[in-house]
Design a protein that fits this description.
Enolase-like, domain 1; 4-stranded antiparallel β-sheet; 5-stranded antiparallel β-sheet; alpha+beta; 17% strand; 310 residues
Length: 310
C-alpha cells in the first residue's frame, strides 16, 4: 500500500509496495509523479527493547507482522488484525506505513469523474447518494469510514508513529478527529511514516481482534473491533476497546470501557457494556445496521476474550 503525500493528484506520492496506489493510478484518481521508497534498517523489521516494547518499521510487510510469533505473543490484537486484512497476496506486499496512510475506499472518491471533498470538491456525494458502507458515527463532512485496519488495532495499543519529520506522535494525532474532509491523515506533503512504537505489554493482558464482513474472504470490514483486557480475581482490571469501519477515524469505545473497568468479568456485564457501543452514534439513513453489528462484535470478542483468560 502507498502513502499519498497530498490530496491533490498532481503532487508526488510515495510508493512502497503500491498496492493501493496502483489501483488509484489505473482509475485515474492519482496521476502525479512518484517517489519510490527503499527499505533501510530502521524502516523494516521489528526491534525489541529490554522491557519487551517493540518498534515496527514502516516498510515491514503486513504478512510479516501477522506471522511473527513474538508479535503474536506480545501484541496478539495487532497480529490478528494483520492476518485478517485483504488477501495473502496483498499482505505479502502491503506495508504497515502504507496501510496507515492509504486513501479512502469510498466509491465516489475512487471515481475519477466525481469531485468529492477529498479531491477538492464542494460536497460529499455519498451523504445524499449510496452510503450503504459509510459511517454510523457521523463526525465530519466526509462520511467515508477510515480504511486502515492496522490503525484500529494500533489505537487499542496507544501506538506512537515515527515520521521523517517528527520523532513520535500518537496514532490519534496521525488520524485526527474525523473533521478534516480533505485528507485521510495528518501527514505533511513531504512527510513519510518510518515506524511504529509500541509500549511493553501489560502483565497478564490478553487481546483479540474480530471483523464483520459481507463475504467470506478478501472483503473490507463493515465493522472491526480490537479488545485488550487484564482480568484478575474475575474483575476487569484493564480494558481497551477500539472500533473501525464505523467512523471517519477508528474510535475508542469509551462508554464500553467505563462500564467494564473494575467490574465483574461475566456475561451480564459484557452484554450491558456491548449495548453502550452505540453511544454517540448518529447513523446515516442506510448505515444503522452497523450499530447492530458493532454491538454484536463487541459482545462476541469480549466473551471470547474471557474464554482465553479462563
Amino acid at each position: 500500500m502507498t502513502a499519498a503525500m497530498t490530496a491533490t493528484a498532481q503532487r508526488a506520492e510515495f510508493r512502497a509496495a503500491g498496492t493501493d496506489l496502483s489501483e488509484r493510478r489505473r482509475s485515474g484518481v492519482s496521476r502525479g509523479p512518484l517517489i519510490d521508497l527503499s527499505a533501510t534498517p530502521d524502516t523494516i523489521g521489528v526491534t525489541w527493547a529490554a522491557d519487551g516494547a517493540a518498534t515496527i518499521g514502516a516498510l515491514t510487510s503486513i504478512a510479516a507482522i501477522g506471522a511473527d510469533p513474538r508479535i503474536a505473543a506480545a501484541y496478539p490484537g495487532i497480529a490478528a488484525a494483520a492476518s485478517g486484512l485483504a488477501t495473502p497476496q496483498v499482505r505479502h506486499l502491503a506495508t504497515l506505513g502504507g496501510n496507515l496512510a492509504q486513501r479512502s475506499r469510498c466509491w465516489y472518491f475512487r471515481d475519477p469523474h466525481i469531485a468529492c471533498l477529498r479531491k477538492g470538491g464542494s460536497d460529499c456525494p455519498a451523504r445524499t447518494g449510496n452510503h450503504l458502507y459509510s459511517v454510523a458515527f457521523d463526525l465530519g463532512p466526509c462520511v467515508a469510514p477510515h480504511p486502515s485496519t492496522m490503525a484500529a488495532a494500533l489505537l487499542a495499543y496507544d501506538a506512537r508513529i515515527i515520521t521523517s519529520q517528527r520523532p513520535g506522535i500518537s496514532i490519534g494525532e496521525l488520524l485526527g478527529d474525523g473533521s478534516n474532509a480533505t485528507s485521510d491523515h495528518a501527514l505533511a506533503p513531504d512527510e513519510m511514516i518510518r515506524g511504529v512504537e509500541l509500549s511493553a505489554p501489560l502483565p497478564g493482558e490478553r487481546a483479540l481482534y474480530k471483523r464483520a464482513i459481507s463475504r467470506s474472504h478478501a472483503e473490507w470490514p463493515l465493522v472491526e473491533v480490537c479488545a485488550r483486557a487484564v482480568v484478575t480475581s474475575d474483575t476487569f482490571q484493564f480494558i481497551r476497546l477500539t472500533a473501525g469501519g464505523v467512523a471517519p477515524v477508528p474510535l475508542r469505545l469509551a462508554a464500553c470501557e467505563t462500564a467494564l473497568q473494575g467490574k465483574a468479568a461475566n456475561a451480564t456485564a459484557i452484554a450491558e457494556a456491548a449495548r453502550l457501543a452505540r453511544s454517540g452514534a448518529n447513523p446515516l439513513p442506510m448505515t444503522g445496521y452497523k450499530l447492530d453489528l458493532l454491538e454484536g462484535v463487541v459482545r462476541d470478542v469480549l466473551e471470547r476474550l474471557l474464554e482465553k483468560v479462563g
